[in-house]
Each structure stands twice: as structure tokens, then as C-alpha cells.
Write a structure and sequence with these properties.
By secondary structure, the protein is of the alpha+beta class. The chain has 9 helices and 19 strands. The strands form 4 sheets. The chain has an 8-stranded mixed beta sheet, sandwiched between helices. InterPro entries: ODR-4-like (IPR029454).
Length: 492
């Protein structure tokens, strides 16, 4: 049976929601510690701008009256802001009435329909909902119902399908604050994807979907290194850190002994010495961060030779830049989990940028007669209160995406509306990726210049041609210089 772990701060928040409004509802952001345990990371009451707060203070307000569309919208928005190791894992209800926490009441029967309606909306409104992860998609969710009347919490496991099913789920309040271990990774993008669509005007959103699927395939086939080393998937993160600390201590002792014997102060050791790096920005709470790196295989090896084929295409879509990833793991997570979380965070960040960018397009179609260059938003980070702590001492950071010229107040507004937290604009980390962090470039083959004798067409400029033009430019400059010198002597 699955178990949900909550902090005392979560209980205080549920009480607060019921006290301020007779009926409140929202989302649960959580972390999968292992196959049987989920940790509640953050509870966020729904703050939909068009919500009628007076209705929520009505004692007759029930689960049947909950706006499923508002919940689904909040769910999707929060999913984009979560690091890859966290996700929206369910829904909570907080009320002054005891019926919400009674599974034999009519009120509870409406909860299953609410959850099913929300999930249906998620599937309908977001084509990328099923590809947010590089592994298996989430199939089980958490439903929490808190009654202020008798201080009782009801916890159920929800499984989608056939109208939805509630099963037993245990829950425990943990006194000790949860420990989070930060990991960071820089993922460099430099990929060229063919545009097959022969139409004169293509849908750029559809081409971006091809990018998502291609990068997802690459990430699944990739290997994740921790501190420049391949680590066995089966061990947990706590064991890995312990072993690395012991290894570092031995290296330090050996280096100290060698230095004393030789009179040198230079420490010796392998070039890839494995150690925890100190965080530059001090935003990770415990001051340490593990560096991860994603190593890609040779891409042509992802397909067997029998599946490799030569085909014609009308243009190319290139994505170049860097995605900065920052995730938080539990010490009991296996290394396999850690690697999956890193991959998921990169994929989620890419999908979110594309979605945010496409949402701002007035016309998703572009002409195939020009080079189309665009700049997606960059990723910024902000802290949220953890276990009742203030944002400045939090060990957890979520992210938002800002276009060039957008003020940090955009992230402040989103954090309040989606996550129900107040953040200081000055505390937002804006320089994790810089400007610009990546570009989308579409190049199209001009139909008038297509060589029918070629098996494959590409609109990417040839390196030899670029070098030739460069040499011609130098030669012309030299001729102009010589001519001016000769003219000077003639005139003299």
C-alpha cells in the first residue's frame, strides 16, 4: 500500500485554508521517494482570478461545485514550474465540514468524479501531457480531504480509468524537515531536424512537436554522469554520497602525506576527482550541489542500419543553446531515479519553452521562402517556503520562463496565482542561463533552386562555401589596399 508523507507545515496550511475560507481546494506537488512512498513537497490553494471567493465562504459549497477547469489549468501551470524531480501528484480539499473527510458520505462520492473530470481536461488540453517524462507516465494520484471540524485527514489513491477508482492509501505527518539534495546540469542543444511538410506555409507548432519527440528519443538513449563518473543505477543517493565522501577523505589524506614528504603544497590525484561542488549562488540551503552531465550516443546509432533511409525534405529546423537544469532529490532515491529526474527536467524545460513561445504566436504558420529565427524564453528560478521556512532559507526552487525584456514581476505574479506563495522579485535568480539561452531557426529550401538529381536536399549553408566567400573577401580587401597604395605613389 502506498504511503504519503506530509510535514507539520502541510497540516497548518490545510487548517489555514479552511479557516480563511469555509471551503478550499488546490493541487498537491510531490516527490516519489520510492515505489511505495510519496513526499508532499508543496500544497497550493487554487487562486483562479475569476473565482468567486464569496461562494467559497458559503457553508453549502460542496465538492460538486468545484471548478474542474480551474483545477486543470492550475495543474498544468504548476507542472511547468516544477523541477523534474517534482510533479503535481494530486488534489486536496479543505473544509470546515466533517463530510469531506468521510468516505461514506455523498460529498466524498463527488470527489471521484471531480478527479476524473480534471484528468480528462488535462488529456484534452495538453498534447504534451503524456511526454513530460522520459520514462513511464504517472498513473496513480493522491486525493487529500481535510476536515477542520474534527481535525481529520482522509487520504486516497486515485487510479484513472473506467470512471476512476479510489483505493486505500496510508499517510503520516513527519516531524523532521525533509532533506533535499540538489543536482545541477547544463544540457547543450545543437540539433538539426528536417522539415518534411511540402506546404508553402507550414505550421511551426507542429514542427516544434517533432523537436520534442526527437530530443526525448535522444535523452532516453543517453547516459547521465554524476561528477564525471558513471554510477551504478541500483545504489541509492545516500550511499553514493557516503562513498564519495570516504573517497575524498582518502584523497585528501594521501595528498597531505605526499605534500609533507616532498615539501610541496600541491595536492595530487586523478583529474576527474569526485567531490561535491560548493554552490555559487548559495541558494541550495545545504550549500552543496552534485554536478550531473548528459552524454549523448552517436545519433545515427540510435537506429539500426536497416532502419536508416535517405529521403528528401524541404527545409531544416535547428535548435541551439543551453538548458540549465536544477533538481532536488531525496537521499533514498536510487541513482536510476536521479538520472531519470535529470532527463525529465531537461525535457520538461524544453517543452515548456516551446509551449510558452507558441502561446504568444499570433499566427502559427510561417512561409517557406525565408529564414525564420526566434528566441524562446529563458529559465529563471525562485525559492518557495519549505516546511514553514521563509523563502530566503528554503532548499527548494521552482522555475518560471521570461522573454527578453520581461520584468521579474511576471514570475512573482505566476508564483502567487499558481503556487500560492509570495516571493521577492529581488530574490529571483535571473542569470542561470543568460540571454539568449537558445534559438529556434527554420531554413527552407527554395523550390526554384532544387536540384532534382540530388537524393537529399538541405538548406544548411556548406562550410566550404562559407570559407570560399571568406577568402574572396580577404582577396578583394588586399586588392583595394594595393590599388590605394599605387594610386598614392602616382598622385605623388
Amino acid at each position: 500500500m502506498r504511503t504519503v508523507l506530509l510535514s507539520k507545515a502541510d497540516e497548518v496550511y490545510l487548517e489555514k485554508c479552511a479557516q480563511e475560507h469555509s471551503f478550499s481546494y488546490g493541487i498537491i506537488v510531490g516527490h516519489q521517494a520510492d515505489l511505495t512512498k510519496s513526499i508532499v513537497v508543496h500544497l497550493a490553494r487554487n487562486n483562479e482570478e475569476d473565482a468567486d471567493l464569496e461562494d467559497l465562504n458559503d457553508v453549502n459549497f460542496t465538492i460538486r461545485d468545484v471548478n474542474s477547469q480551474a483545477l486543470a489549468s492550475q495543474w498544468l501551470s504548476a507542472s511547468k514550474m516544477c523541477p523534474g524531480s517534482f510533479d503535481v501528484i494530486g488534489i486536496f480539499i479543505s473544509s470546515t465540514l466533517s463530510e469531506v473527510a468521510d468516505e461514506n458520505s455523498d460529498e466524498f462520492k463527488n470527489a471521484k468524479k471531480l478527479f476524473s473530470d480534471v484528468y480528462d481536461l488535462l488529456l484534452q488540453s495538453n498534447s504534451s501531457f503524456g511526454v513530460y517524462t522520459t520514462d513511464m507516465a504517472q498513473t496513480e494520484y493522491v486525493f487529500l480531504a481535510y476536515s477542520l471540524a474534527d481535525k481529520r485527514l482522509l487520504c486516497k489513491n486515485f487510479t484513472y480509468g473506467n470512471g476512476g477508482t479510489f483505493t486505500k492509501m496510508d499517510h503520516r505527518f513527519v516531524e523532521k524537515p525533509f532533506e533535499w539534495i540538489p543536482l545541477e546540469c547544463n544540457y547543450d542543444l545543437d540539433d538539426v531536424i528536417p522539415i518534411i511538410d511540402p506546404a508553402r506555409r507550414i505550421n511551426i507548432e507542429e514542427q516544434f512537436q517533432n523537436i520534442i519527440l526527437t530530443i526525448r528519443k535522444y535523452l532516453i538513449a543517453s547516459e547521465v554522469f554524476l561528477q564525471n563518473e558513471i554510477v551504478e543505477d541500483t545504489i541509492d543517493l545516500q550511499t553514493y554520497i557516503k562513498k564519495k565522501k570516504q573517497s575524498d577523505d582518502k584523497l585528501k589524506t594521501s595528498s597531505s602525506t605526499n605534500s609533507t614528504a616532498s615539501g610541496s603544497s600541491t595536492a595530487t590525484g586523478p583529474a576527474s576527482g569526485l567531490h561535491l561542488l560548493s554552490s555559487d549562488d548559495g541558494s541550495n540551503g545545504n550549500g552543496n550541489v552534485i554536478r550531473a552531465s548528459i552524454v549523448m550516443p552517436v545519433k545515427c546509432q540510435l537506429n539500426s542500419p536497416a532502419n536508416i533511409k535517405i529521403s528528401e525534405f524541404n527545409g531544416t529546423l535547428r535548435m541551439s543553446g543551453m538548458i540549465f537544469s536544477r533538481i532536488y532529490c531525496n537521499s533514498r532515491n536510487t541513482i536510476a531515479d536521479v538520472k531519470r529526474f535529470v532527463r525529465d527536467d531537461v525535457l520538461r524545460s524544453l517543452i515548456t519553452r516551446i509551449q510558452v513561445y507558441c502561446d504568444g504566436l499570433t499566427d502559427p504558420h510561417v512561409s517557406n521562402e525565408a529564414v525564420y529565427i526566434s528566441e524562446p524564453p529563458r529559465r529563471v528560478f525562485f525559492s518557495i517556503p519549505a516546511d514553514g521556512a521563509s523563502p530566503s532559507t528554503s532548499t527548494i526552487q521552482f522555475s518560471e520562463y521570461l522573454f527578453r525584456g520581461e520584468a521579474p514581476t511576471v514570475a512573482v505574479s505566476q508564483a502567487k496565482q499558481v503556487l500560492d506563495v509570495e516571493i521577492d522579485p529581488e530574490a529571483i535568480v535571473l542569470d542561470a542561463e543568460g540571454l539568449p539561452d537558445s534559438n529556434f531557426t527554420a531554413r527552407f529550401q527554395e523550390t526554384d533552386n532544387v536540384d532534382d538529381n540530388r537524393t537529399m536536399s538541405s538548406s544548411m549553408p556548406k562550410r566550404e562555401l562559407s570559407r570560399s566567400l571568406y577568402m574572396v573577401g580577404i582577396a578583394v580587401a588586399l586588392l583595394v589596399l594595393l590599388a590605394s597604395v599605387a594610386l598614392h605613389y602616382v598622385m605623388a
